[in-house]
Amino acid sequence: MAAAERGSFRRAAKALEIHESAISRCIRDLEDELGAALFIRHHGGVHLTQAGQRFLVRARKAITQIGHAAMDVGSFGRGEAGTVRIGIFSSLASGFLADLLRAYAAANPTIRPDLIEGGPSGHIAAIQRHHLDVAFLTGEPIADGCDLAHLWNERVFVALPNDDGLSRNREISWTSLRDRHFIVSETDPGPEIHDYLVKHLADLGHHPNVERYRVGRDNLMNLVAMGQGLTLTSEATIAARFPGVVYRPLSEEILPFCAIWSPHNDNPALRRLLSLARTMSRRSNAVAVPGLIANSATSSLS
Q1: Residue 246 and residue 62: Cα distance in Å, rounded?
Q2: Domain identity same for 234 and 172
Q3: How far apart are CA 66 and CA 49, in angstroms?
Q4: Is residue 80's pLDDT more than 90?
Q5: Other CB atoms within 10 A of residue 138 CB
Q6: Per residue in 173-186, pLDDT tens?
Q7: Pick from 1, 18, 134, 276: most CB atoms within 10 A?
Q8: Residue 204 to residue 103: CA distance in whole angstroms
Q9: CATH number for the domain including 91?
Q10: DSSP assignment of 152-182, as one string?
C-alpha cells in the first residue's frame, strides 16, 4: 500500500521507517506467493500492474477491517465496551443495587448490562460455569471457586392491608406475627421467604401458616390488599406502591447483600462494576451486623 501510494520502494521505506531492501524483498516474496507481478519497476520508481491494482483494492479493505478489529479489542480490553451479565435477586425499584446500576450505566455508556433474574442456586451455578459475570444475593452463600464481597444491608418489611390492626404500629415484632396467615409466590423469592418465616417463627415455638400462590409479586401484593394474607419483602421493594397495601419494618431484622463472582473471569467490564460497587459501599457506610451474615445464607428476600 505504501509503495503504491508513493510510487517508489525508497519513499515507501522512508515512510515506514524500514530499509528499502526490506520493502523490495517483501514485495518480491508476496509476488512469488501470489504467482503474479504486482509492480512494474522502472528508473523513476514503481507503478502497479493490473493485477496489483486489483490486489490493492482488497488489501485496503483487509487492513481497514484489521484496524477496526484492533480498536474493538482494545476498547474491550480497557473495559470501555462489551457486556456484563448480572444475576439479580433483589428489586431494582430503589436502594443500593438500583443506584449502582444507574451509576455504572452513566459512567460506561458503551457497556450493556445484561440483567438476569433468578434464585441463588441458579445464579451461583451460572457464575461457576461463567454464564454470568456477577450475581447480587442475600446472606453469604457458599460457592466453591467463587469470590464474595458484602456490599450493603436492607431492612425486612411486612406487607399488610392498610386496614389491618398491625398497620398502626411503627414496627412489627415476630411475636405479633406468630398466629398470622402468610402468602408467598411459588417462584423466587417465594421459597426463600417461606423458609425465612418457618425458621424465625419456629424459634417462637409456632409453625407458620403459609400459603403459596402461582403469581408474580404484583399480583401477590394485590392479594395482600384483598386480605388474603401477609407477606415479607425487602427494603428495596417498598418504593413500589400498591393500593390498599402498607409496609412496616420487622423489628431488628436486617438482610446483608453481597456480590459473588468467579476470580477466573477476565471480563474488564466486570472489574469496573466491582470497583464501583466497592466504592459506593464504602461511601454508604454499609456495616454488616455481627453474627448475622453467617446466619442469613438461607434468609433471602427480594
Answers
A1: 64
A2: yes
A3: 25
A4: no
A5: 26
A6: 999 998 899 999 98
A7: 134
A8: 43
A9: 3.40.190.10
A10: EEEEEEEEEETTSGGGGSSSB-SGGGTT-EE
